[in-house]
Amino acid sequence: MTYDPLGPADLKIGVLISGGGTTLENLIQRIRDGRLRRVSIALVISSRSTVRGVQVARAANLPLKIIRRKDFSDDAGFSAAITAALDQAGVDLAVLAGFLCHWRLPPHYEGRAINIHPALLPRFGGRGFWGRHVHEAVLAAGVNESGCTVHLVDEQYDHGPIISQTRVPVLPGDTPESLAARVSAAERELYPQVIQQVADRGLEWLQQHR
Is 159 labeled as catalytic in the residue annotation? Predict the structure, then answer.
């Protein structure tokens, strides 16, 4: 069966990526197999043109826009281009999925933009805490658990109100790679669960977390 990203859905999402597209790939698969219901991907925005996530989007025939920060003189112009693309696609919910650039959130996306972070916020978050850097910091701190956090997006990196978290143990002998694998598995479950809640309960459910 051909995957129709623009098929009937209660919730149209726009997925913002900067890298490999593993979160995007997970969402596509879950929409395809019915684990993520009444959700469609109306647009993918990538801040880089050559990353694997772009190929993931194209392979799934998803609407795709490349919006690179370096093509704009300032954050304001870059952010305006992102917002315009989302608006034109009729996006209900912006889903940040490894998006590493600063999007200046316009007022009409407050409470309508979410992000997933590979640690238990508010610890190990903020500018520079992404990918391997997060897991290295967790191990260096000597804590006994990590996890992932879904939160509302605001004007600061990894700062908005927390919606949901999943905890995973930090095991003796863990490396950044082994911890990352455990956290990634948790992310693959948590993010779709939150998106499904929005599809089931409406954007109003998200507003309760503000």
Answer: no
Q: Which amino acid is at 77?
A: G
Tally of structural domains, the chain: 2
pLDDT number for residue 125: 86
| Domain hosting residue 184, numbered range | 115-205
Contact yes or no for 20/98 (Cβ under 8 A): yes
- Which of 91, 109, 127 marks a domain boundary? 109
Q: Is the pTM of this model over 0.85?
A: yes
pLDDT of residue 1: 36
DSSP 69: G
How do beta strands 11-17 and 162-169 pair? unpaired
| Residue 181 clears pLDDT 60, i.e. is over it | yes
Give the count of alpha carbons within 13 A of 32, CB side only. Answer: 12
Closest by Cα among 89, 109, 207 to 155: 109
Q: Mind spelling out the 3-state secondary structure of 143-210?
A: CCEEEEEEEECCCCCCCCCEEEEEEEECCCCCCHHHHHHHHHHHHHHHHHHHHHHHHHHCHHHHHCCC
Which entry of 117, 135, 151, 159 is annotated as an active-site residue? 117
pLDDT digit string, tens, across residues 6-33: 455 789 999 999 999 999 999 999 999 9
Q: CA separation (Å) from 90 to 42, 75, 83, 95, 97?
A: 7, 23, 11, 14, 19
The verdict on 94 and 11 lying in the same domain is yes
